[in-house]
Design brief:
By secondary structure, this protein is α+β, with helices and mostly antiparallel strands. It contains 26 helices and 13 strands. The strands form four sheets. Strands 2, 3, 4, 5 and 6 form a five-stranded antiparallel beta sheet that branches. Strands 10-11-9-12 form a four-stranded antiparallel beta sheet, sandwiched between helices. It has a two-stranded parallel ribbon with strand order 1-7. The longest helix is centred in the N-terminal third of the chain and has 35 residues.
Length: 771
């Protein structure tokens, strides 16, 4: 059997129960795998696959045995009175005892008592762990070292939370801040937001699909596809995550993409199946014809999305690779479901899919417009004055993108987008991690938490040159409020490396914050060169240095990946449509919608914009931040460029199909718009609803991602498709399909089965003007 979308659809429809049974088993395995393995497959950490400065510093410290893989947890206990009150002292010491009682499998180091005995006051390492009283005498801070790595430490978060609750209430409060507890809070928020986003997205999708198809069975079928896509993809991520870690954002991403893409693809295929049935074809033949047409378009569109996402796999960071991997998996699963499970379900449901029913009191659908209908009138209105509409809409989209380039920064003289990590400060109020961070900043502004900058210095501290450099560096750091007091220098056993560990203080104590990244930048670019010279070989590592290197790598690779995706898309579309004008125009239009989405993200989410933008953000419950998530621009570009190509492919294939039949460019454009208008509008509404539901979450990065996706899809499905496409194609005329003679050798790829003449019937008893 020749393997292609049509043959897969026909084979699946001939053996529907076998196909459904196979996918049901896969879904059950997927849910089981995600339930058991997904949690351990996700992480808030990130790493590099190349060797930036922070990673080189860590490798040197590991080799010289100066770096211990410690998991510290900072604990603050506050008192209604003072720290000298006997009851508070007893509470602190009881808490320390309870922490020690967790055993060596949970904690390796716990301070002995409060206050520290005199004989321990001379040991700087012991003193650094605390307990340390606050300057106002109302709180103490101490650090415990958890056992094992991040995953092992995470297993004991529940026990730590039990102790925290035990000493929170009455005259004392206990707060915990560290990687294990903050990761747990992020995951908890993420899971809750997924549940809300799924509920809203599915609810809106059902309503839209019922309106589009006018049939309960036809409306529910795409929902089934979305659920299957999510369940199977999460199971695959759980299994693959045991060897390749994924960001904790990935389940949110998979749920969004699974609902949006799974429903989107199914909507187009079911619509084409109903069209084939309306022409008089029997059940199995209609499945086969939809496989030869819509399934092929879905396959090509899905591959385009995958190629756009694949560019992120080239970025040498685990964040981008994890996000890209999760998105690619759910798209591939959606394609596989569309090629096999959906034809089987269509074969089983048969007539139930084509009966319009009496949804909302009328037996009608919105699948196809007719000559003189809404989309036909819109298209012809635009094509009557194409230059005017093209200029107005292009100018509007460019105007929306202006904040991306020009919005002022509140803290400096810069303009345009500022990228970074939101950090703990953007966690919603009422979350323990956020409360702990706020208390830490308020009560211990100069002590900081567990985050440090690790200055790796070649040589021994007893060397006069090295010693002088360390003194100069310490003096510079003492005048910088972002740094605490450096720990005593440590020299490796072989005397080749000295480590100066400098804790962050104040706002910089959040290792991902802008303040911390700016502090590392000053350390690398100013303080270290002044103290040791430009070519000293001194490296700056630590968690914040990793964040800084991530930003630098993102900035370097983003334009490279964007150009690569544009080039690949241009080549693919050139082959498919046998034109160099259509792909160039599609790319420009997609860039306009993506640019507008970027501009609106900066306007609404980044501080420094006009007062009305702040009012909009507050009204929608969005968090305004100092910097947009560093991974977002490239990630959004890859997702949006792929998704927007979906609409371009479905629309342009119909236009090309009619143009090949009639040779009339204007009529072909009108035909393409009116025959895809209702379906694409329904698909876009579903996508906007799904993405919008997830933008209502409580994590800043997910808010920005959901909002950007929703806005771009909305603009693409309305302004771009209904105004830019017809106006540009009208102006270009037959030049739309220009292919140079030297490219005539390109293969002819029949994306949607053009060999079958398309005649749009009055479908399924529809009444009134179809949209």
């Amino acid at each position: 059997m020749k393997l292609n979308p049509e043959s897969l659809a026909r084979a699946s429809s001939r053996h529907p129960w076998r196909t459904v049974g196979t996918w049901a088993v896969i879904l059950v395995v997927g849910f089981a795998a995600s339930g058991v393995l997904l949690s351990s497959a996700l992480t808030t950490d990130f790493d590099f696959t190349n060797n930036p400065e922070a990673k080189r510093a860590l490798q040197i410290l590991d080799q010289r045995k100066l770096e211990q893989d410690l998991i510290p947890e900072t604990i603050v206990m506050t008192s209604e009175g003072t720290v000298q009150d006997p009851a508070f002292v007893d509470a602190v010491n009881a808490a320390l005892s309870d922490l020690r009682a967790l055993g060596a499998e949970a904690v390796t180091t716990v301070p002995s008592q409060f206050p520290l005995p005199d004989d321990q006051q001379s040991d700087p390492q012991v003193v650094a762990l605390g307990p340390i009283p606050s300057e106002d005498g109302t709180a103490v801070l101490f650090t415990v070292i958890l056992a094992g790595d991040s995953d092992q430490a995470a297993e004991h978060v529940g026990e730590l939370e039990t102790i925290r609750e035990r000493y929170s209430g009455g005259d004392t409060e206990m707060y915990m801040l560290g990687e294990p507890t903050s990761s747990e809070d992020f995951k908890k928020i993420s899971e809750e937001d997924i549940q809300k986003g799924e509920f809203v997205g599915i609810l809106v999708a059902i309503v839209v699909l019922l309106i589009v198809f006018g049939s309960l069975i036809a409306g529910v079928t795409p929902i089934i596809m979305g659920i299957f896509a999510i369940g199977v993809a999460l199971g695959l991520i759980g299994m693959l995550g045991q060897i390749w870690r994924f960001s904790f954002f990935v389940p949110n991403l998979v749920t969004m993409m699974g609902l949006a893409v799974g429903i989107d693809y199914s909507l187009f295929i079911v619509s084409r199946y109903r069209e084939e049935r309306a022409r008089g074809r029997d059940n199995l033949e209609a499945v086969g014809r939809s496989g030869a047409t819509a399934n092929r378009a879905v396959f090509f569109s899905g591959v385009t999305v995958v190629l756009a996402l694949a560019g992120m796999l080239l970025v040498p960071t685990t964040i981008f690779r994890g996000l890209a991997g999760g998105a690619i998996l759910v798209v591939l699963v959606s394609i596989a479901l569309s090629m096999t499970l959906l034809p089987a379900i269509m074969a089983l449901f048969g007539d139930h899919l084509v009966k319009p029913g009496r949804v909302f009191g009328r037996g009608r659908t919105l699948e196809h417009g007719r000559p003189g209908g809404f989309w036909d009138r819109v298209t012809r209105t635009v094509m009557a004055r194409p230059a005017l509409w093209l200029i107005l809409t292009s100018a509007f989209l460019v105007l929306l993108s202006v904040p991306y380039w020009a919005q002022s920064h509140p803290e400096d003289d810069g303009r345009g987008i500022k990228t970074g990590f939101s950090g703990i400060s953007t966690i919603p109020e009422g979350i323990q991690t956020k409360e702990a961070f706020d208390v830490l900043i308020e009560r211990f502004p100069t002590v900081g938490q567990q985050s440090t900058a690790d200055v790796v210095i070649p040589g021994t501290s007893t060397d006069p040159t090295v010693g002088q450099g360390i003194q100069t560096l310490q003096s510079a750091l003492a005048a910088d409020a972002a740094f605490g007091e450096p720990q005593p220098p440590l020299t490796s056993e072989d005397g080749t490396i000295t480590l100066l560990r400098v804790p962050f203080a104040g706002e910089a104590s959040d290792s991902s914050s802008e303040a911390a990244v700016d502090a590392v930048t000053r350390l690398r670019e100013t303080y270290v060169p002044q103290a040791f010279g430009e070519e000293s070989g001194v490296l700056v590592g630590g968690d914040t240095a990793f964040v800084k290197d991530f930003f630098d790598i993102s900035d370097t690779y983003t334009p490279i990946i964007i150009l690569l995706v544009l080039a690949l898309s241009f080549m693919l579309l050139t082959v498919v449509f046998r034109s160099i004008v259509v792909p160039a125009k599609a790319i420009v239009m997609n860039l306009l919608s993506v640019g507008a989405a970027y501009g609106l993200i900066v306007l609404i989410f980044q501080k420094g914009g006009p007062a009305f933008a702040k009012s909009i953000a507050d009204g929608l419950g969005f968090i305004q931040v100092d910097a947009i998530e560093s991974w977002l621009p490239l990630f959004l570009f890859s997702i949006l460029f792929g998704l927007s190509m979906d609409y371009q492919v479905f629309l342009l294939t119909r236009i090309r199909e009619e143009y090949d039949k009639t040779g009339d460019n204007a009529e072909a454009v009108a035909f393409g718009l009116r025959t895809t208008g209702g379906i694409i509008t329904g698909a876009a509404i579903i996508m906007v609803a799904v993405f919008g539901a997830f933008s209502a979450g409580r994590i800043a990065g997910l808010e920005q991602m959901g909002f950007g996706l929703a806005v771009a899809v909305f603009l693409d499905a309305t302004i771009v498709r209904s105004i830019l496409v017809p106006s540009a194609m009208k102006l270009l005329g037959d030049r739309n399909w220009y292919l140079p003679k030297w490219l005539q050798w390109l293969p002819k790829i029949d994306v949607e089965g053009h060999e079958a003449a398309i005649e749009v019937p009055e479908l399924l008893g529809a009444s009134g003007p179809a949209s």
